Amino acid sequence: MTKVIKILFVFLFLFQLKTFSDVFQKNDSLEKVLAGYELNQNISNLPAETLFNIGRIYENYKSDYNKAIEYYKLASEKAISENDSVFIAYESWLGYTLSKTGDIENAIQKLLSVIELAESKDYKGKLPRLYLLLAFAYRDAKLFDKSEFYFIKSIDASNTLKDSTDIHTALAEIGNLFSIRGDNKSALKYLRKALKIRERLGLSNVLVYGYHDISIIYLAIDSVELSLRYLTKADSIASLLNEKWVMSSIYANYINIYIRLKQISKAEPYLIKMKNIANELNLKSVYVTLNHSYYIYYKALNKSGLALKYFELEQVYKDSISNQDIQKNISEFEKKYEIARKDKELLKTQEDVKRERIILVSVIIGFILVFTSLIIILKFYRKNKIAFEKLEYQNSKILKQKEELNELNSTKDKLFSIIAHDLRSPFVGIQGFSDLLLNSPEDYTPDETKLFIEQINISSRTTLDLLEKLLNWAKNQTGKISFNPEKINMQSIILECMNSLMTSAKIKSITMFCDCENDIEVFADRDMLRTVIRNLIQNSIKFTKPEGRITITAKRLEKFIEVCVKDNGIGMDENTLKNIFNITDKQTVPGTANEKGTGLGLILCKDFVEKNGGTISVESTLGEGSCFLFTMPSI
Predict the structure, then answer these.
(1) CA distance 96 to 93
(2) CA atoms of 265 and 259, how far apart (whole Å)
(3) Paired strand residues for 258
(4) Which of 282, 338, 395, 601 is 20–30 Å from 102 (CA)?
(5) How many angstroms separate the CA atoms of 414 and 585, rounded?
(6) Poorest-confidence range of 149-163, 349-363, 601-615?
(7) Which pLDDT score, from 0 to 100, does residue 82 have?
(8) Are 467 and 597 a contacting pair, CB within 8 Å?
(9) Which residues, including other chains, have CB under 8 Å from residue 473's CB and lie 6 or more apart?
């Protein structure tokens, strides 16, 4: 029990870090402390735990990974010589730090060896962290499937132990893998799950990575303001913790954001900061990022000569850490690792059989063989169970992709239907009435001529409205519509939309009311919010009978403002309610004045509300009316 407690406390460094803290109070600098230990102490006589913590100081406070690795090796050798199982912790941290230096091949070799030992010794408490570190190394080697597999194993092992220590890290890294594959929606889902756990636990040392990773996703989907907001949070924490490696990545993202915003002058100070960190850390991976940042900076300034120079430097650093060679060597080592493990298992079985032949009778030998067979079957079952779970997970992803593809095909068919029928029909009327007026205007009375012109005008407005909805929906689906959230007074924008539709309401003698306090504000894109309110009011006018009533209200919730557009119109049945926001199952119903529609306006409302971080729903009773509710973030 004492050894288990000791191993756990190694990761927390409580005893030795307190010793070093006392020393710091008596010395002016970290360099003096380390020099004192290295010059005045016989290193071979230092305890393994002290050696390990000196390495941690080199890694965390000086970012000197090579010196840290040197002390981790000494700590591990010391623990092995003393037959202390804590060396597993030292060896695993050694493997993780090797990956930080870019030595991915040796990092994976080291971690695989440690995992083999931990599994054979049944050290279940160490497995979540070991799987996690190995997943990191596979990720750095760009072996993403293996990386995801070990992140999932880490979560499973943590759940088995009912320990959430490493779960938030594995969730965040699975999110990053989705990001690498281009699935930003899934990436954001996993990253937010991880961030929620980290914020609840107050883990500032990993919160910085959570804010940083979410910032990158928002930048990828062109939500630049949100990206900058999360990056600023990451920057403030990284500066306090003096995490130089992550600070270099944060500075690189500041550069990307300001170039995206065409504020190139703001990017220059971050290039200087990034260069200083790169020179201090002296890591190839940081130099790759630095040279890429210089490349996009000079490209934005249209200085093609300097841009080409830094592009070539970036490639030089990338080539110096050839990923293809690393992956090949890792693959060879994995084969050797499997062969070595099987050889050891075979040798152990042979030695056991030989020893038992001497000291046991044949009945006992039979019992051992049966017992050994049961163990092999159990291990085989466990391995196949893991493989089956992974296969099941991959199948679920394939099914999800298939469903998304079917939905896209249905959407395409619906879109063509709208273009072929609803967009074509008004033009038939426009052409017919205009032909009559053009060919024989003298045949018609002024009242008939006026009626024809009114019909042409109505058809033109209907067609223009449909075209605007189609264009906005298409832009939103392709990600080309801009998203610029700002502070908006809710009452003013509701009144603006009501005034623009007052004529349509008066034609049907419909009364409209606004119930919204004048100090309610939201943080949203103005054009999108205006489109949502207009479409919902238009929808209510369409399905409300003459002399009807429409009320638009807004009220405060905890972090959102809820808006309700309520009418006393014809209402909807359950089947219509179920598919109201689904373009593939849209069955359009004519309005109370036989107005036609496509249902595209409500689909556009749903897309715009969700893009602003809100939700939309509807409540309705057939024959009594409907209430459309949506939320927007409050100030």
Answers:
(1) 5
(2) 9
(3) none
(4) 338
(5) 9
(6) 349-363
(7) 84
(8) no
(9) 600, 603, 604, 607
Report how far residue 275's alpha carbon sits from residue 37's, in angstroms, rounded to the nearest whole number.
32
Give the pTM: 0.41
Using DSSP, state whether 235 is helix, strand or coil: helix
Spatial neighbors of 84 by CB under 8 A, at least 6 apart, are 3, 48
C-alpha 456: how far from its chain's center?
50
Angle at 352 between CA 350 and CA 357, to 5 degrees: 95
365-399 pLDDT, tens per residue?
A: 766 777 777 788 877 777 777 766 667 767 767 77
Q: Kindly write down the DSSP assignment for every residue of 417-476, as one continuous string.
A: HIIIIITHHHHHHHHHHHHHHHH-GGGS-HHHHHHHHHHHHHHHHHHHHHHHHHHHHHHH
Q: Which residues pair with 506 in a beta bridge?
A: none
Q: How far apart are CA 292 and CA 361, in angstroms?
A: 72
CB 226 within 8 A of CB 234: no
- The ranges assigned to domains in the chain are 360-421, 482-633
- Tokens linked to 626: 């409907």
Across 51-65, 126-140, 466-480, 515-529, the highest mean pLDDT is recorded for 515-529
d(CA 283, CA 317) in angstroms, rounded, equals 10
Where do we find the tokens 């971690």?
111
Rounded distance between C-alpha atoms, residue 170 and residue 166, angstroms: 6
Structure tokens at 124: 């279940």
| pLDDT confidence of residue 490 | 93
Give Cα separations from 500 to 159, 259, 264, 457, 496 (angstroms).
57, 38, 40, 17, 6
Residues with Cβ within 8 Å of 240's Cβ and at least 6 positions away in sequence, in order, are 204
Q: Is the pLDDT of residue 115 over 80?
A: yes
| 70 residue type, one letter | E
Say if CB 548 and CB 524 are below 8 A apart. no
Single out the residue of 105, 103, 100, 37 nearest to residue 71, CA to CA.
37
Question: Helix, strand, coil shares of the chain as percentages rounded to 5?
Answer: 75, 5, 20
Residue 476 one-letter amino acid: N
- At position 590, the amino acid (one-letter code) is P
Please give the structure tokens belonging to residue 44.
């071979």
Convert the pLDDT of each residue in 306-329 to its tens digit: 888 888 888 887 776 545 444 544
The band of 536, judged by pLDDT with boundaries at 50, 70 and 90, is: very high
Sign of CA dihedral 223, 229, 232, 236: negative
Six token digits for residue 504:
């349509």
In Å, what is the CA distance from 325 to each residue of 210, 322, 329, 331, 338? Answer: 31, 6, 6, 10, 20
Strands (E), 142-254: none
Q: Provide the Cα torsion 388, 393, 397, 399; round to 10°.
A: 60
Query: What CATH number has the domain spanning 482-633?
Result: 3.30.565.10
Sign, Cα dihedral of 79, 124, 342, 358: positive
The widest CA-to-CA distance across the chain, in whole angstroms, is: 123
What is the pairing mode between strands 549-556 and 511-515?
parallel
Both tokens of 470, joined, read 């189609």
